[in-house]
Write a structure and sequence with these properties.
alpha+beta, five-stranded mixed sheet, elongated, 7% strand
Length: 577
């Protein structure tokens, strides 16, 4: 069945892993007293990759069929067989050229997923045409159709009943294609139910039957499902090593079988830091056209990608894209379930529909739970992204020296630069004034005209202030609707004159927003300081701002639209400055 020198080249690390697992399986079988010497010899030859004829495989299959108790023995023999088939790919590629079985398998098991606009009846009619070309067995196609749909909604007891009604189980070699197809459905049901002994026996039987048809793609299709059986049975290391061997043996990276291998590797591989193999598989899967994988596989791939890009990569755009794709394939799975349910209602008797209805409700709940999970995950990510964006915005604001709305200096500039300027003012004995300004009844303007109008007022007022003061004067947006002006070489009288001039200009100015004409007033407070030769202590920035703020507070409490200096405030209350 194979050529002596047909082993494909393998990476040394992978080959070592396979060889160790293979040697372990062989040692167990050779030490098992239940295995007769002829079977041990066959297994030794399989491990050595020696050429064997079909009769030898039939002898091995007969032994497997008769073994009913030793599950681990079947696992070991199955792994040896599986690796032998995979290593035989170069031989298969040269000798096997038929696709008759594979085309039918794809259509029956997978391909109808790729045409979500077509209902099950149309796809099954296409399958019927393919079977008519290859199968001599008389088929009850209605039973086949029902079995395929029942298997998809996981009504396995009914599926097995309908599989028995498709054709006469008595057959000559080679088996008809339809019998191989029904065997594959049985193997998948056994795997799903955890009946691993039955599943291993059935997969081995199917591969032997497919060898007679010389259909490489069909064999590969089954080997993928057989390999995944090891993972389901708790032998993940064997499963991963075999999948990697399949992947490395395939040239066509765009084929459905290659995509299936890659998906299984992605699905069963755990994520581990740093650059995990799982992410490498994910990135490669995302390059494969969506028409190659099934709806539930695409749902999982894109949902995982959405989570990966939201938490590990923190890429908002990519995360949204994959969450959207995942939701799309969830909806397609929903549509498919509804179409299958409608089909069964047309073809099953009432007593069987009662059984199907409970299973259908269970599957429906699965999809609803999946939908809820996706929504919750998406909302969590939106919240995460929003918080991250706010943190980033706050950090940028902290690092910035300019207010983004008005273009004025901000409080960070005040804290970083004013102390140094105060030191220079003291050295040169320059008087300095602090002017605190506030827009009167600004909240009322916001409530009446909206926050966008409020932003426009702040922006336009900032421009007006800048036109009425010197370029050397420092104008700061202190917070909200408050502004702080720091004037160097300016006595109280100079500062009051300039601020009154600004107040009058604001009072007479018309601020416009859309079709609105808005009038505002401002109030202010001024604190000043004159340095003398005897002064030894530094003036306190916070104290100067606080004095100006007290003067502003007086202006606000006594009619607004006015400016008060600390000197005026001191004279009224006879307070020491």
């Amino acid at each position: 069945m194979n050529d002596q020198n047909s082993l494909p080249p393998e990476p040394s690390e992978e080959k070592t892993g396979i060889q160790c697992l293979l040697s372990e399986a062989l040692l167990k079988t050779q030490a098992n007293e239940r295995v007769p010497d002829p079977i041990k010899h066959i297994l030794q030859n399989l491990c050595n990759n020696e050429q064997l004829d079909l009769s030898t495989f039939e002898q091995l299959q007969e032994f497997i069929e008769n073994e009913t108790t030793d599950l681990q023995l079947i696992y070991d023999i199955s792994y040896i067989q599986l690796v032998y088939y995979i290593r035989s790919f170069p031989y298969f590629i040269r000798k096997f050229h038929s696709r008759s079985v594979y085309d039918i398998m794809c259509l029956a098991m997978d391909q109808r997923f790729h045409y979500p606009d077509q209902n099950p009846t149309k796809i099954l009619n296409e399958l019927k045409k393919h079977l008519a070309k290859t199968d001599e067995a008389k088929i009850n196609f209605n039973n086949l159709s029902s079995a395929l749909i029942l298997a998809q909604i996981q009504a396995y007891d009914l599926t097995l009943i309908y599989l028995d009604k498709i054709i006469d189980p008595q057959h000559d070699n080679p088996k008809p294609v339809i019998q191989i197809l029904t065997d594959l459905i049985r193997a998948l049901i056994y795997r799903r139910r955890g009946e691993f002994l039955k599943a291993h026996k059935k997969f081995a039987e199917i591969c032997l039957d497919l060898s007679r048809f010389q259909d490489l793609e069909a064999i590969l299709y089954v080997l993928n499902d057989w390999t995944y059986l090891f993972n389901r049975a708790g032998e993940q290391q064997r499963s991963i090593s075999a999948f990697k061997l399949i992947r490395d043996s395939l040239d066509n990276t765009k084929s459905m079988n290659y995509a299936k291998t890659l998906y299984y590797l992605f699905y069963i591989t755990k994520y581990e830091r740093p650059k995990a193999e799982k992410i490498q598989y994910l990135e490669e899967l995302l390059q494969i056209p969506n028409t190659v994988l099934q709806n539930h596989e695409l749902l999982y791939v894109h949902f995982y990608a959405g989570n990966f890009y939201s938490t590990i990569q923190v890429n908002f755009a990519e995360s949204i894209k994959h969450f959207t794709e995942s939701n799309y394939f969830l909806m397609k799975s929903w549509e498919q379930l509804l179409q299958n349910n409608a089909f069964l209602h047309e073809h099953l008797p009432m007593d069987e529909l009662k059984v199907v209805s409970s299973i259908f409700e269970y599957r429906l709940k699965d999809l609803l739970n999946e939908n809820s999970l996706q929504i919750n995950q998406f909302v969590q990510y939106l919240e995460f992204a929003y918080n991250e964006q706010n943190k980033l915005y706050d950090k940028v604001q902290e690092l910035s020296l300019t207010d983004s709305l008005t273009g004025l200096r901000n409080r960070r500039y005040l804290l970083n630069n004013i102390p140094h300027l105060l030191f220079l003012a003291k050295r040169h004995k320059n008087p300095i004034s602090f002017i605190m300004l506030d827009i009167d009844d600004f909240k009322k303007a916001n409530d009446i005209y909206g926050h966008l109008a409020g932003d426009k007022i702040l922006h336009d007022l900032s421009e007006l202030i800048q036109t009425m003061f010197r370029k050397s004067d420092i104008i700061i947006r202190y917070g909200g609707e408050e502004f702080l002006l720091v004037l160097f070489d300016a006595h109280t009288e100079d500062s009051l004159r300039l601020t009154e001039k600004l107040r009058e200009a604001v009072e007479t100015n018309t601020f416009t927003f859309q079709d609105y004409q808005i009038h505002i007033t401002i109030s202010g407070g001024i604190s000043s300081h004159i340095f003398d030769d005897k002064e030894t202590e530094e003036i306190n920035l916070e104290d100067m701002i606080s004095l100006a703020d007290h003067a502003l507070y007086y202006s606000k409490k006594h009619g607004k639209n006015s400016i008060t200096t600390c000197e005026q405030l001191a004279n009224k209350f006879q307070m020491p400055l």
